[in-house]
Write a structure and sequence with these properties.
- This protein is α+β, with helices and mostly antiparallel strands.
- The chain is 42% helix and 18% strand.
- It has a 5-stranded antiparallel sheet with strand order 3-6-7-8-9, with helices on both faces. The chain has a 3-stranded parallel sheet with strand order 2-1-5.
- Strand 8 and strand 9 form a beta hairpin.
- The chain is globular and about 50 Å long.
Amino acid sequence: MLCPFYFFDEKERELENIHCDIIFNISKLFKELNTNNIYEIFYIYCYLLWNGYFSVDKIYMYDYKDILDEDNTIFLGKGCCRHNSSLLTDVLRYLEFNSTEVSIRTINVKLDRIINDIKRIHVLYGEKEEKVPKNLPNHSVVLVKQNSSLLLDSTALTCIEVLNKGKLYCPDGKYKINRKLFLNEINKRNINFESKSLLSKEVLKNHYFIAKNIIKDNKNLIEDFYNDNNNKYNKVKELVKKI
């Protein structure tokens, strides 16, 4: 898969080249890890994201303020749901999954979280987050197809199955969204959804258990990936300051 170039000067061109190199290296890592399915890829992506393997100082935090570069902010160490989903979408496309970033409106999310061993750093502000009007999306996830259609939420650390008429099945607990807005979004795409769930909590637990063992067995490979990529993260930091 080729990475498109949209640039106005040499610095932006160099930044785009490095961005594409990083995405390629991430997808290459997943191939070397010999992941078997989207569930294992999702768990490992969340592990790498929240443990800073995509970030310059090996620290990544949820922070939606003062974003210096929308496309590269994760490499600089912070971002929010749209950045988490955008990067995951790019990686999955390199891995030849039919994936797309989707904007949704969450209404009531209460999760037990099968993925409960990945710690997230969330910056808290004294003031409340700016409220998004009720008729607009307030969250970003990734829609991907493997057997059934799935919403991958790497911010909330949960995987949701999409059924006919925009119904959702979340093995983690409650994940309620504005279905009208969601249907308006997904109807733009010609996707066939299952009438009943093909997923279960036990199936997910098993895939995540396998993913944990993949990480455990490949610690050196993952550390080498970070060390090889870190000079690119530092170069992104340098270039973003100059633009």
